[in-house]
Structure prediction request, 490 residues.
Amino acid sequence: MQAPPSATLEHFDVLIVGAGLSGIGAAVHLTRECRGRSFAIFEGRAASGGTWDLFRYPGIRSDSDMYTLGYIFKPWKEAKAIADGPSILSYIRETAAEYGIDSRIRYRHRVKRAAWSTAEARWTVDAERGDGSIVRVTCGFLFMCAGYYRYESGYTPEFPGRERFGGRIVHPQLWPEDIDYKGKRVVVIGSGATAVTLVPELARDAAHVTMLQRSPTYVVARPSVDAIATRLKRLLPLKAAYWLTRWKNVLFGMYIFNLCRKKPRLAKAGIIQRVREALGPGFDVERHFTPRYDPWTQRMCLVPDADLFESLKSGRASVVTDTIETFTERGIRLDSGDELAADLIVTATGLELNVLGGLSVSVDGRDVDFSKLMAYKGMMYEGVPNLASASGYTNASWTLKADLTCDYVCRLINHMQKTGARICTPRQHDPDVAPMPWVDFSSGYFQRAMERLPKQGSRLPWRLHQNYIKDIFLLRFGKVDDATLVFSRD
Prediction:
């Protein structure tokens, strides 16, 4: 890639990378809280929406309720709390249009490199356009909202004999439009959120769908419509109803998470009993829905209106818990010796995590290795000036944390303008702070990427909370000018 020749470069006070749920939210926060500041959004794809535009597989939906996945400033109006992908995409784009964000988005601008100059107190950013050319801009603050996984491809293990299979093999992340599964035998490999979403949806038209899992996942059924939220909407103004429902769901989620962590045996017994009640007698719940690990050491799967259980009871779908020996011409042979016949195999085998959207970063000519750095308040990085990234919770809705992060970044930018500071850099001065893994989740997609992820620290403000209420006090009400964040005018 050839960079453009030196010239007067277009400059922004803030450059946002990514026009998905986080990026649109960040732009609205800037519009509302940092008026007069110039900004743009660089989006690598040809459309906004991020995950909710990229994922097109049948039944795509959120595994979080929209009263917490929705933005704090824009109430969710639809009836269903567990929403489908197109509805979420419409919500994101409606938000962008409502706040005039659309005109700030530059599509097919995939940010590749960012170089910080302390002498100039700015980032120089190179982005690759759709035609392969490079556009170079500068910014005072770089806000990464590119999500946490690689958009180009998902994770697929090496399956022996894959080339022998006579049917079609697809990964849900790159779902082709021309797939016809009506009347076909389908095997979905996986047991996570994507698999439990796909199976009941495919089972509506397929001859039969088999969910093939190596080991079970905790699966919890929940109504797609929040009855309390519906009642509150009738009694109260929309914003008040949304606020109360949001806090109801936040507190309930925190209660369940803490119960799972403090009393795992009790929580596990309750979850499994509800699965038994949903599936009825005669189903081998012990084998197919009883994980070996404790609840919430991996993310639990949510099935709205018990649709997965209903498809299993109807016989349109089934679960097989086994390991793969090899693909064959007509399906998959298992280590038990059984063979699953298939016309279509769907590898719902997970994501590939991506640090800061795969961005290459340098500070004053030195390349930055984020895996060697600790994260300040879960969003900035030691020794890296004027850069923040939006991320979500592992145990709650993504947007809860992203909203707090955006709010904090706006407070930080306003503080810098008020004090005349041009540079803010997290510095780790405490010798007693020890680096720790970014998360304590055992999910495969985290474990595969753990060596590439930044670290958290053993103490605040380097400690990464998975607790919304604690983060409210840390990010929304905590001091911006603390001893760790160093400000400079030069």
Observations:
- The first strand starts at residue 10 and ends at 17.
- The chain has two domains: 10-152+352-488, 162-347.
